[in-house]
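INTERNAL AUDIT FORM
Audit reference: QA-55
Scope: verify that the stored structure record matches its stored sequence.
Auditor: D.O.
Record contents follow.
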Amino acid sequence: KVLKYIIENYSNLSKKDIQDINQRIASTPGKEWKKGFNVTFDAKIDDELGNTTQMPFTVTLKGDNHFPEWNYSKSYEPKAGILEGTDQWQSFLNEVYSWRDYSFGSWVGAWYAVGSKTRNAFGYSTGYRAETYNVTENTMTTVEESILDMDFSIREIKKVHRSIETKDLSSGIVGARYEETREVLEYKSRINKNGDIEYLPAVVEGTRYNFNADNEIESTSDFRSYTIYDDKGREEYALYVETQKDAQGNITGNKIYGYSIAGYDPATGLTPIAYGSNIEMSDIAGDFLRMTRYGDIAWRLLQDKDAYSRISQGAENTLEIIIAVALSVAKLVVDEGYDYEVAKINAISTLLVSNATQDTLTTQGALY
């Protein structure tokens, strides 16, 4: 009753938003006098690039264990696009409603209680069901996620299993439907503008389950991704290793490729709009373990400051060349048994002389 009174009398929300929140409160089971709540109106969050996310409301209803039962919020997130009929970029606000239910199914009252980076007490739910309604795009994304493992040394999620479905509400067409298990093998830390430690997933491994029209698994993909971030926490380089299998578990193909981000939209600085060439390694065979050996060697090269220095001194398009060198070194080490340092010098020398990829690499073009 107190929460409803605050929402109805101390907010500038629309009648529809107030009714929606009150309906969610009323439909929550349990004894009201045992519950607690947090409510925030008209919050603003600024990122490191000067973009502001506006949040007209955030409402959290807590159960008798003091942890949230659900969270519901509305936000206007900064996005960018080209103004129709021109080549001018403009910034706009993407209207989004987000609902996250922590009391769904087996996750009732199931929380990891751990120390926080900034507070003495904090909690991670072991699972939740979320719905994100993008008003601007008229899409609904539904996620169910179970947290399987935590890295308590840095207080970050380590392993999850999730199912994801995105639907176009105007047509009813499901644009994406899959399940996946993801495990973060390596985090990279950075200090954000507020001086807080932020952990970004650098190496992630998992399996994706793809479904057919009859909701049956028709294929799986074992993958490992590698990401290098810039000083603002944006993706700068990416490597991707994948082994594809049919429904029976037979390998149908392997894929290894890398790309760099060469530019972001000028309106918000968030969305990548210019990519280096997609460099893909061809003629690869073997199981997923072999694919990750390629990936790990290429990842080592991408983090090699000596290699970056050598390449930047001899090539104008460093962002593209370093990806090609990384994959070339991986092939020399894994396929031909080269020592890493020898392979590095060999690949850099060869690629800088020709300033193009060799037979083992192919340039696929810009990623638009």
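Auditor finding: record pair retrieved intact. The first helix runs from residue 2 to 9.
Action required: none
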